[in-house]
Amino acid sequence: MLLLLVGIVILHIAALVLLFVSTIVSAWVVNPASSSDLWINCNTLNGVTKCDTANTGVWIQAVQALMILSIIFSILSLFLFFCQLFTLKKGGRFFLTGAFQILASLFVMCGAIIYTVMNSNWVHPSLFYGYSYILAWVAFPLAFISGLIYVILRKRE
């Protein structure tokens, strides 16, 4: 049982780290001369890098909010898991923990979908998706799977 709990916590922390990296690192769209993310756009010209704040359009703010909410709900889910681990009765399920983690996965999915749809209107065709964008999509199934595991998991002695 201990190995199962450790595995679930590692999966949860891996999803949380992916959410942090994908939200903070400036690599949602890249090419050799520029990179952009949810917060900042950087261009390199003649060896000089210039960074400006990201477009303040409504859609980018929605993506920013959804990614932040996914991090918050994932952190709350981890906190709730440890609280329920010590307070839940024997045989009880971790429904609240699983619900928060599934919500976190749905938030990151919605944010990545909005970014994908609106990206064609905003980004030059010479740019391609960077690793932070890909990490956001990888974090979605990891968070969703860990949420499902929490819902299925029963507390044992």
From TrEMBL:
One Pfam family it belongs to: PMP22_Claudin
Primary site of residence: membrane
Membrane-spanning intervals of the chain: 58-82, 94-118, 130-153
Swiss-Prot/TrEMBL keywords: Membrane, Transmembrane, Transmembrane helix
GO CC term (a single one): plasma membrane
Membrane topology: Multi-pass membrane protein
The keyword Transmembrane helix is assigned to this record: yes
Signal peptide: none
Compartments, record wording: Membrane
PANTHER family: EPITHELIAL MEMBRANE PROTEIN-RELATED, PERIPHERAL MYELIN PROTEIN 22
Family: Belongs to the PMP-22/EMP/MP20 family.
Protein name listed in UniProt: Peripheral myelin protein 22
Source organism (scientific name): Triplophysa rosa (Cave loach)
